[in-house]
Amino acid sequence: MTPAVTTRPVPGSDLRIHPLALGGNVFGWTADERQTRAVLDAYAEAGGNHLDTADVYSAWAPGNTGGESETLIGRWLATRRDRDRMVLATKGGWDRGLSPAAIRESAHASLRRLGVDCIDLYYTHRDDPTTPVEEIITTLDELVRAGKIRHIAASNISADRLAQSLAFSERESLARYVAVQPHYNLVERADYERELAPEAARHRLGVIPYYGLASGFLSGKYRPGSPTPQGARTPDAHRYLATPQGPRVLAALDLIAADRGVAPATVALAWLAARPQVLAPLASARTPGQLADLLAAVHLTLSPRETELLDTASAPATDTPPPTTGP
């Protein structure tokens, strides 16, 4: 019998999320509607409650224009009676910037596609340096006050702009970012840990990293001398093999996975879930079978020796591995 999963509170909010966030970037792209529903059903049946998508997913698929992932999730939600149990996160601003008009239009379009009255967690998908943080926060606050958004968050933002945004929210008593979504995993540590992590810790922000498996590299399907796996979503993940950390990390994952009887992906996500401030790694799956390896990370606690092995293998050049204590 699978142990019950304890949800984690998002600081500064009334949200509690499952320790594995399910990414919707493949829905409407490499997963059609039937596959999408199967993955969503399996995730919900396992106790999962945190769905993450964006208004641009999956614009890169032939014939798509963006919003397909939100639409499929919305159709699935409409068939269920437990909408209130789900923490629904989406993002706007990737391709249109973050002017007040763009934010309002993007948020309302997402609400229509998702078929909901309120988005639980709304992210600025990437920062727009041409728009002052004061305008961004003020517009997001308007949407919160109007009941269209419960809480706000930021993805792909610099530590400096994040600090400016939080200071303005505090000064003006406006809606405040409660979480950040950075690019962070075993082979992408330096940028987040040097700059954004201290800011997130200082302001007690929840961290929900994307690319938890480094575009599939940490699943172990990319190997030295091997061809790119058929159907790979991001064939450039092979580039990690040319880094000092890439082969070392794969070797460490293989060793621990074999000892524990789990998949390398499970070990990689378990390491990420235990990092300071991290509430839930974000990962996606095209099939329930792939999802099973991701969900297994929730029940895997790495030993200090295993954690040290991964910390050492993945440490950025000249860096000392940071503390591994959880939030």
TrEMBL record:
List, alphabetically, the InterPro entries matched.
AKR_Detox_Biosynth, NAD(P)_OxRdtase_dom_sf, NADP_OxRdtase_dom
PANTHER family (UniProt xref): NADH-SPECIFIC METHYLGLYOXAL REDUCTASE-RELATED (PTHR43364), OXIDOREDUCTASE-RELATED (PTHR43364:SF6)
Region annotation Disordered: where it falls in the sequence: 307-327
Q: Which Pfam families match?
A: Aldo_ket_red
What CDD domains does UniProt report for this protein, alphabetically? AKR_AKR9C1
Report the residue ranges that make up the NADP-dependent oxidoreductase domain in this protein: 19-313
Protein name, entry field? Aldo/keto reductase
